[in-house]
Structures are given as C-alpha cells and as structure tokens.
Amino acid sequence: MLSAMKLMLTFFLSGIIACYGDNPNYDSIHKLLLVSFDGFRADYLKNYRLPHLQEFIEDGVLVEYVTNAFITKTFPNHYSIVTGLYEESHGIVSNEMYDKDTKKKFSQFNDKDPFWWNEATPIWITNQQQENRRSAAAMWPGTDVKINNTLSHFFMKYNYSVTFEERMESITMWLNNSNPPVTFATLYWEEPDASGHKYGPGNKENMRKVLEQVDNHIGSLIYKLKRLGLWENINVIITSDHGMTQCSPEKLIILDNCIGRGNYTLVDQTPVAAILPRNNKTYVYNLLKNCSTFMKVYLKEEIPNRFHYHHNKRIQPIILVADEGWTIVQNGSLTKLGDHGYDNALPSMHPFLAAHGPAFRKGYKKKTINNVDIYPMMCHILGLKPQPNNGTFSNTKCLLVDQWCINLPESIGIVIGVLLVLTTLTCLIIIMRNRISSPRPFSRLQLQEDDDPLIG
Ligand SMILES: [Zn+2]
To answer: Would you indicate the residue range of the signal peptide (predicted)?
Structure first.
C-alpha cells in the first residue's frame, strides 16, 4: 500500500514540477525591456525563417497568438499593452479621433496633446512613481507626451526616420548606465507594418525581405545586450500591436454611392470608419445600413459587447466595420494593399508574444492570451502595484517561473492517470486477497478401483 501511495505522489508532483519551472532564485526586481515590431502577424512566425527570434523563443516562452483590442489599430493597441485597458477605458479609441466638446482632433501626426492620453496611466509612469526607479523609451506611442504631468525619464521624440540601430543604441545605453537604474524600457519599430501596408501580406517575396531585416534587428539587440553584460539579468518581451490582411481593388465599399458627404463627418477611415452625423442620425444610419453587404453598420449603442468599444465619448455615434479584406472609401481607389483595424476575432489581426529572461520559463509555449493581460504580468515582474485594469494575471502565470501553474489539459491528464493507477491497484489488491484468504484444501489423491497400481 505504501508503494502505491508513493507512486501516486510521484505522479502528482511530476505534473506540478513540470509547470513550476527551474529557477527558484528569481529576484522580482529585474529589468524589463518591452519591444514592439508593428504589424507582426502571428503566423509570420510559422511561415518565414526567423532564426534569431526562434532562438530567443527556444530559450524563453511563446504565446502563439495574442487577442488584441478592437479596433485593431496601432495607437489604441500600443496603449492597451502598457495600461491593461480596453480602448473604451484608456481613451485612445483610434488613430484618428475627434472630441465634440473641445473640438480637438487627434491623428498620428498630431498626437502630443496630453488631453488624449490622460484617461489612463501607462506603466512607464507607474514604474517611476516607485522610489529610485526610472523608465526609458524609444518611440513607443505616447512616450514623448507628458501624461498625467509625467514623462518617461529618458525618451526620444518620435521621428520615423531614426534608424533601428539608433533607437537600440539609446535604449541599451540608458538600460546600462543610469543611476538610479532604468528598470523599465520600451522600444518601437515600424516594420513589418509599413511593408505589410505597401505590398500586402500576400506578397511573400517582399514580406520575406522585411521579416529578414526584422529578425536581424532582433539578432543585433540580443548581441548588444550580451556585449553589455545585460542579457542574463534582463527580461525582454517581443510583441506587436496587430496583424495584417490582404486588401484588393475589387473589394471597395464606396460611401459616396450611398450617402451625400454633407450629411456626416468622416472622423476615422477604413476599415473601421467613425461617422459623426451632421443632423439626422437615423437618416444617416438608414442610408449606411443598406450600403454594402460587406460592412456592418452599428449605432454606438448597438456595438457588440465583445468589442468592449462603447463607453467613451470619443467613440462616434455610428461606426462601420468592413469585412476582412474590404476597404471603405468615400470615393477613389485603393491606396494600401494590406490593412488592419478589422474585427479582433480574426486570426489575421492577431500578433504574437515571445519573452526571455530570468522571470520567464524556458521552452514553454502557450496558445493565447489577451493583450490586456500583458500589463498585470509586467507589473508583477517589476514588483509594481497595477493600476485598475481589464487584464487577468492568471492567464500569464504559466509563462512565469515563480508562479504555480496547472493548466486544464495537464490537470485532466493527471486526474485520469491517478484514476487508472487507483483502479489497477484496487484490482491487484482484490486478486491478492482472494488468493490469501481462500487456500485450496488438502485432499489425498484417491485411486480408482480399475486403475492399475504402478507398483504391484
Ligand atoms: Zn499599420
């Protein structure tokens, strides 16, 4: 019986240890570098050769796809990653916004007014509110804006013509030299998004070229961190804001064919267009509703709950959501062969996440998390108390060495295994008992009368 219990215990422990990891000496105040390669669609990892990134993953963790926030555009999702909030809660609801009360406008080229960013507190600020810590940023959206009256201690003014090498040099220098220490840093790069828009993700040859460059950037970042002696002690997260899908000149939804421009203001463009009606909202809605079978038209109050895209006054009274690959224009032709912004349930809109460092397990793969889950995980790594957020820390526990982690398939496997062992043992015990408790009674061998005795 003792050996049976021993066996069961081994069974249980092996499952738990497999999930628990192998680094008990993890210090919770390690540095963290968060890197985004804009528009890095999750399946690029499977379809292209990316040796540096693959090596990074083999020694760290991979989340195969990340469910990002709707709408799947750049500014909103970068802010979701660093705040753990859906777009309706952090207030950056698109790349193009309009505020009716103040008449203010926001765009990628006019994004410096703190007004737009102040509805949330990003992690680089929370990190600096802890004693003796600094943050550094190389062009992550919002890091050159004074949010809630605070700037990242080190930052670069956004300028797309600054090379990856220059951004990398600055961020690694800040991570290495400053006193008090930089514990949180961010690095942003515009590719493969720019090429995805220009050529479309279906253009394998051009995407191969740009992804090779991105992979080389990852290689040089790792090399630089190793050379500075930072590699073993720093946690690095490589992720992205959204994916990319192929567009086509045959898939155009032309608003001018359905409604006169005088009836509305087009606040945000394709593939999720934000419509501000000039006078009669119902009239505008009815005209748009029947415009195309390849576009969903929602009044603000009808937007599906799963989008978490409703409770903010910057979300306009009507939004149009194009089907995958379709482009909404007022008139004219297609300008981008690839685009994003579509429904966040579409696999083509999902980015990936990979991470490496003392906080992370080695060689672990997980199917999915939400991008709002990244924030509580980063706060945990940095030992920060998170601001209120929409993320779920337990979704990321299996990625971390210092967390207990039993995921569902493993738990079911363990339970079935234990039941099988118990059943086998019970059967064995019953058989053994029957043998011991009912011995065959001794009986003398009787010779029949007609048998010939062997010895006469
Ligand atoms: Zn883009």
So the answer is: 1-21
Q: Which residues are catalytic?
A: 74
Q: What is the arithmetic mean of pLDDT over 384-402?
A: 96
Q: Are residues 333 and 199 in the same domain?
A: no
Q: How far, CA to CA in Å, does 37 sit from each of 126, 319, 421?
A: 24, 28, 49
In a domain, 158, yes or no: yes
Span 61-112, pLDDT tens digits: 999 999 999 999 999 999 999 999 999 999 999 999 999 999 999 998 899 9
409 has pLDDT over 70: no
Per-residue HEC secondary structure of 194-251 comes to HHHHHHCCCCHHHHHHHHHHHHHHHHHHHHHHHHCCCCCCEEEEEECCCCCEECCCCC
The pLDDT value recorded for residue 439 is 52
Considering the domain architecture, whether residues 321 and 371 belong to the same structural domain is answered as no
Q: How far is the CA of 74 from the centre of ligand 1 (A)?
A: 6
Domain interval for residue 272: 252-339
How many angstroms separate the alpha carbon of residue 195 from the centre of ligand 1?
Answer: 9
Q: Does 416 map to a domain?
A: no
What's 107's DSSP letter?
A: B
> Do the Cβ atoms of 397 and 404 come closer than 8 Å?
yes
Given phi > 0 = left and psi -120 to 50 = alpha, else beta, which region is 225?
Answer: alpha
376 and 351 in a common domain: yes
Asked whether residue 13 is assigned to any structural domain, the reply reads no
> 272 and 68 in contact (C-beta within 8 Å)?
no
pTM: 0.84
Decide which of 317, 339, 361 is a domain's last residue. Answer: 339
CA of 197 to the centre of ligand 1 (A): 7
Tell me the CATH number at 310: 3.30.1360.180
Q: Which among 34, 50, 96 is positioned nearest to 237, based on CA atoms?
A: 34
Residue 340 CA, ligand 1 centroid: distance in Å: 6
SS3 46: helix
Centroid of ligand 1 to alpha carbon of 271 (angstroms)? 11
